[in-house]
Design brief:
The protein is of the alpha/beta class. Helix content is 28%, strand content 23%. It has a seven-stranded mixed sheet with strand order 2-1-7-6-3-4-5, with helices on one face. Helix 1 crosses helix 5. The two termini are 20 Å apart. The N terminus is likely disordered.
Length: 191
């Protein structure tokens, strides 16, 4: 798709690992899936509230913008979501027959993913000891928060082989409202 003169808030890239470099293309505009906030579930912690909302209202949270990208990648293989959040993409990957794993630094969000039945590595991806091969690695709105992008991408590449895929998205620096960036988690990098 052509972007034209519009300012895109974020881009999604799908990288196909070639023999010596990534082959990338813009897959589509990427919308932000808001964190569930309402209704409040009295007497429960945040993780339990979120889990209840997701289970009671699955249509509000899935399929999400990553599903069409996952549907276009065959064969199924293992899926690793770095910054798995509340597990939206993990659920989509599982629905498509993939073995799905998450990486999450938020304790609250990691508990939600685990309650949905997923193995979650907790902490900063670069510091974790993750073994094995993942045919698809996804990290969406993560790269701008990473201290050393080269270390992060090198670790991703160590978990993949030629022909595997990486799905990533990051905010477009011209499309981000300045106050939103200042009030949210700090972006160390701008793309």
């Amino acid at each position: 798709d052509e972007v034209g003169d519009e300012v895109v808030a974020a881009l999604v890239l799908v990288l196909h690992l070639g023999p010596r470099h990534f082959h990338g293309f813009i897959a589509r505009d990427h919308g932000v899936v808001p964190a569930p906030r309402e209704p409040q579930c009295e007497g429960q912690g945040e993780a339990e509230q979120t889990l209840k909302l997701i289970k009671d209202n699955p249509d509000k949270f899935w399929p999400g913008p990553t599903l069409p990208l996952l549907q276009g990648i065959t064969p199924p293989g293992k899926f690793l979501e770095i910054g798995s959040g509340f597990g939206y993409n993990l659920v989509n990957a599982k629905k498509l027959g993939r073995e799905a794993y998450g990486v999450e630094s938020s304790e609250h969000r990691a508990r939600v993913c685990e309650a949905l039945g997923f193995k979650v590595y907790r902490g900063a991806f670069e510091e974790l000891d993750i073994k094995g091969r993942f045919e698809i690695i996804s990290h969406q709105h993560v790269l701008e928060h990473v201290k050393d992008v080269n270390v992060f991408l090198k670790k991703c590449s160590e978990l993949q082989q030629e022909g595997d895929f990486m799905i990533l998205s990051m905010p477009h620096n011209l499309g981000e409202p300045t106050m939103g960036v200042l009030m949210y988690l700090p972006h160390i990098h701008s793309f």
